[in-house]
Amino acid sequence: MSPRDLPIYELESPIIASLRSRGRLIVQAPTGSGKSTQLPQMLLRHGLLDGGQVVVLQPRRLAARLLAKRVAEEVGAPLGDVVGYQIRLESRLSERTRIRFVTEGILLRQMSFDPQLRGVAAVVFDEFHERHLYGDISLARAIQIQQTTRPDLKIVVMSATLDTGSLKDYLGPCDLLVSEGRSFSVDIEYLPKPVNFDNEPVWEAAARECARIAGRVDGDMLVFMPGAYEIGRTVQAIQGDRTLRDFAVLPLHGELPPEQQDRAVARYDTRKIIVSTNVAETSLTIDGVTAVIDCGLARVARYDPHRGINTLLIEKISAASADQRAGRAGRTAPGVCVRLWTEREHAQRPRQELPEVKRLDLSEVVLTLKASGIDDVAGFPWLEKPDPKALERAEGLLADLGAIIGSAGVPPATHSTAAGTTVLPLRKITEVGRKMLRFPVHPRYARMLLEADARGCVRAVALMAALTQGRNFLLRAASRDVEDAREDAFGEEHESDFFILMRAWRHADKVNYSLEACRRLGIHSQAARQVGPLFEQFLEIAEKEGLDVSERRVDGAEICKCVLAGFSDHLAKRLDTGTLRCELVHGRRGVLARESAIQKAPLFAAAEVSEIEGRGGEVNVLLSLATAIQEPWLKELFPADYTEATGVVYDESAKRVIARRERRFRDLVLEAKASADDVPLNEAAAILTQLVLAGKLKLEAWDEAVEQWITRVNRLAEWFPELEVNPLTEADRATLIEQVCYGETSYKGIREKPVMPILRDWLTAEQLAVLDQYLPERLTMANGRRSRITYHKEGPPVLSARIQELYGVDGRFTLGHGRVPVKIEVLAPNQRPIQVTDDLGAFWREMYPKIKTELSRRYPRHEWR
Ligand code: ADP
Ligand code: MG
Fold first, then answer.
1. How is residue 52 annotated by DSSP?
2. Where are the alpha helices (DSSP H) in 240-337?
3. How far, in whole angstroms, is CA 580 from its chain's centroid?
4. Ligand 2 centroid, distance to 281 Cα (angstroms)
């Protein structure tokens, strides 16, 4: 069949017409229709590229390479000439390349370095239904670029299955072209009863099913397995089955050398069985398949909250994915699909995968966006908005890694607006952040690799990165025998749990992952086996970016510093030596895992932080994979986050002001020392004054007499402005209290301290004399008695006296040379006021005669004149 017969050609004219007029297009057609291989060629042939390139974004590296190769063959040019590809660790490109297949962050990075997207005439987003993070984000960026600097840029979104409704709105105005394609019916068979792959390995179940249906179908078979290791085992199992000996068995996955990948999609005279990852689900079409064996598993990238990174773990695929896999059996003739699970189990599978934007850690893309000058990532036109918490988490991590920084250099706090939304102050990328972007790995490891390069331990860090990606291979809760064997094999360790993992992996590698040898040490050999290829990958990435990956002896401390660089947000401080309780940065608490070897370090960084719900519903934070950290490293690596400060505070229990010397890493207090010595006296006085003003401490000597004195001074200032006495304001009062407190650091010191001497200093000697003369405390009356005068903040001064004390006194009183009239409060013998008057003459005349009889009867022992 010539490519020209492929169903996509039914849409050729509308595709070209649409792109000429609009520049945005969605093409929806089933797998195998010719979208990936033919559409880029159409653009080229019809002159839509105008001398530029079409960049085709693919979710999978293997697909990008194989598609490039296929299209190069169809065009009749060597790979890397007119048609090329560019994936994470390799590329085949030239000056002449017009069709370029790329993966992951390559396009997004190009957009950030060159927002003009020079030389690119069209961008094609392939396999968009998979909703890969980079697809979503690169599409949003492409739209921005088309709306601003490049209105001529052509954007095509291609998909096998899609809820094209929302996408069409998002892209609008935009055309949607649909091809029904051609397909045949596929019979779906389930297992009659569930299989536990721990008992019957998945490869054996798959080989058994291949053998069972081999006689029933004519064409080739396609087996889906989650990863390279399972594929290898399946190939062996099939080759070991005599009923299947006429089949050529071909593995297909990304870790194979290119020649082997090519072999899997080549044509043969014999029947073949291809054992593939989900790259064959929709990305690649393999002709001639009429039977599919689906194990129902795939490696799925997901944010792992324990490790704080994205991990690839094997999970059950969704029903939608399973339907796509089944469809591969009906491309050229009716087919059959065997699912290695039961129909009942099928009903419990999720219908659809969550888009990656909803389940991955966003820190790497957030950093890329910031590198493009998009600081407000929440306001970015996402096709589907990520959870605001996920964005906050990503920004928080990037800030802790030193990759972004708040505008004023302080870690910005979140705050809520009236609308209830959280607003993040915009944080910008730093120099470190830009360097980190060179490494296409999770930002934690990018930061660690940078650190490792400076410290000559890139190999160790690459291995640590590989060790944390997959499932834990060093089993927990091992028996006594295993523990002893481990101690013999790995020795003692006090620096980092990573070092034990590294030794365990080296051991497993040395014994070639022998099940028996691994079991003795409690090593999951299959999980350990997966570390090697990842290690190689990380090394390649490091080497490609010019890091020194040579083997050399390094100090453990240097490696531990790299762990700190990547996991500073997991820094923990032991609260005591008796328990394993810890305090972490960002106000969290946790408990160090009992099996950690790092039991003595007062500070450590945990590479794994898991929240475990306890019986009572309380959440325990378990810290594992610990690395001992020395405090000076914090200052060395994160100088801006390490603070030493002396604070002066009032110690309630000691009732004194003390000096607190504190060392902090971010919000975590590393050590606080209190001392009563060396307290700066002016700070002590200020603190004591605040407490006195707030009413928390009382100056016993500051009594009513003192208040009267202050009132007298203030009234003197008011009534006799010519004396130029300064009135005492509230602020002056604080100053005076501070003067009383000065020189003291404890409550004991100020409690009974006299205050009058300090107050009297407020006035000059002259003013003092005038005060006593003009506004005296007591007044000598005509009968020779001295009576107390009370001064108030408002109104006249009041002289209070019992009737008996007033005999022989008459008329009005004044103070200050007659300028201040005095009110007289006449008291009964029981000190109760009888009358307030400013003229005693009136009292004697009018009031006194009326009350005298009554009072004299009540108080017969007093004198009554
Ligand atoms: P789509 O993207 O719509 O799924 P493709 O463009 O990938 O379709 O494939 C269209 C057809 O081209 C396939 O059905 C197959 O026949 C052929 N084809 C694609 N890639 C290869 C390849 N590497 N080797 C052989 N044939 C291929
Ligand atoms: Mg395709």
1. S
2. 258-265, 319-327
3. 25
4. 10
Residues having C-beta closer than 5 Å to ion ligand 2: 35-36
Nearest to 121 by CA among 11, 269, 232, 20: 20
Q: Which residues contact 444 (CB under 8 A, 6 or more apart)?
A: 308, 309, 397, 401, 566, 567
- Yes or no: say if 105 and 364 are a contact pair by the CB < 8 Å rule: yes
Per-residue confidence band for 224, with pLDDT thresholds at 50, 70 and 90:
very high
66 lines ligand 1 (CB under 6 A): yes
Pair of tokens at residue 446: 């990018």
**Ligand lying nearest the CA atom of residue 32:** 1
Query: Which token pair is 725?
Result: 């006495």
Say if ligand 1 is within 6 A of residue 32 CB.
yes
CB-CB neighbours of 616 under 10 Å: 5
**What mean pLDDT is predicted for residues 423-427?**
71
Q: With pLDDT > 90 as the criterion, what percentage of the chain qualifies?
A: 59
Cβ of residue 86 lying under 6 Å from some atom of ligand 1? no
pLDDT score, position 587: 85
Q: Is the CB of 58 under 6 A from ligand 1?
A: no
CA of 142 to the centre of ligand 1 (A): 26
The pick from 70, 126, 162, 184 for probing ligand 1's pocket by mutation, whose C-beta has the most ligand atoms within 8 angstroms, reads: 70
Task: Give the residue, out of 37, 71, 85, 265, with the most ligand 1 atoms within 8 A of its beta carbon, to mutate for a pocket test.
Answer: 37
Name the DSSP letter for residue 474. Answer: B
Residue 64 in contact with ligand 1 by CB distance below 6 A: no
If DSSP codes are grouped into helix, strand and coil, which group holds residue 605?
strand
Left, alpha or beta for 831 (phi > 0: left; psi -120 to 50: alpha)? Answer: left
Taking CA atoms, 218 is separated from 97, 336, 450, 563, 834, in Å, by 40, 11, 55, 55, 124
Nearest-atom number in ligand 1 for the CA of 286 is: 15
Total Cβ atoms within 10 A of residue 685: 21
- Please report the atom of ligand 1 found closest to the CA of residue 265: 24
Q: How far apart are CA 91 and CA 569, in angstroms?
A: 36
Question: Closest ligand 1 atom to the C-alpha of 66?
Answer: 23
Return d(Cα 453, Cα 404) in angstroms, integer: 21
Burial of 118 (0-12, 13-18, 19+ CB in 10 A): exposed
Q: How far is the CA of 160 from the centre of ligand 2 (A)?
A: 8
Residue-wise pLDDT for 478-491, tens only, equals 688 888 888 888 88
**What does the alpha-carbon distance between residue 476 and residue 481 come to, in Å, rounded to a whole number?**
13
